[in-house]
Design goal:
Length: 246
């Protein structure tokens, strides 16, 4: 824990602003208004990492700059290249060695960070929009919500073969790591309660052990349903079915 108390202070070479890490110093200096080559906003749109669109990091293996894409060729002609120099990467690694436990520098600050995120998300309804995005291919078909393309294939197959299927609303309580959890399987069919499961975890395996009567449709059992909808609607069947689900 002594490493956390020996905090080095860095100062901006342009305005002498105090920074608590080498990374924050570099990020400040490229934006410092007293830096004649500082970054200026080139529009309202920004990349997900906070860097302005239309700019690129370049290096000559001794130093690095953040320049406009329209100026890249000039620097390329001088021998510069895209990226950050290995020397700078090594400096960052050396500075951070032994100081990083997770996302924050200490366990206490990491717990505080997680709590802030949790508090910020309480009452936030924006998560609803994620139901139409993501690798799970989420969406609604025939007024039934599907959490993945596998669930969609299973649902469509049953509907088009006039087989009984509906979303399962039954709740099952199970124990994991000495704590109670609530489990709601995916569907109810003539075969019983069904859970569509792609990725196995220790928790999911333990959960299924406690409810052996719930049938698990895994990657091998889901194949005939996927083959059916792919043959009829194409490989990216979810795009067609979610858009044409009257």
């Amino acid at each position: 824990m002594d490493n956390f108390n020996k905090e080095q202070i860095y100062f901006c070479k342009y305005c002498n602003k105090e920074c608590k890490s080498l990374n924050s110093l570099k990020q400040h200096e490229i934006r410092c208004k007293y830096n004649s080559n500082h970054i200026t906003c080139c529009g309202q749109h920004k990349s997900r990492k906070g860097l302005h669109l239309g700019y690129k990091w370049i290096t000559n293996d001794i130093e690095q700059k953040f320049v406009k894409e329209t100026e890249l060729q000039f620097y390329f002609d001088l021998g510069w290249k895209l990226g950050v120099s290995n020397i700078f990467k090594q400096k960052i690694s050396k500075v951070l060695t032994g100081k990083s436990i997770g996302k924050a520098l200490t366990i206490e600050k990491e717990n505080e960070r997680k709590q802030k995120i949790s508090n910020a998300m309480k009452g936030n309804k924006n998560w609803i929009f994620n139901k139409t995005r993501g690798n799970g291919k989420k969406g609604r078909y025939k007024n039934i919500f599907c959490d993945s393309s596998w669930e969609l294939a299973f649902l469509v197959y049953h509907i088009e073969h006039n087989l009984y299927i509906e979303r399962c609303k039954d709740k099952f309580e199970y124990i994991w790591n000495n704590k109670k959890h609530i489990y709601i399987p995916d569907f109810k069919t003539d075969e019983g309660i069904i859970e569509i499961k792609g990725r196995k975890t220790k928790q999911s395996e333990e959960k299924h052990k406690q409810f052996p009567n719930i049938k698990i449709i895994d990657s091998s059992l889901i194949k005939p349903y996927i083959e059916y909808v792919q043959k009829k609607y194409g490989n990216e069947y979810w795009k067609y079915l979610y858009e044409n689900n009257g």
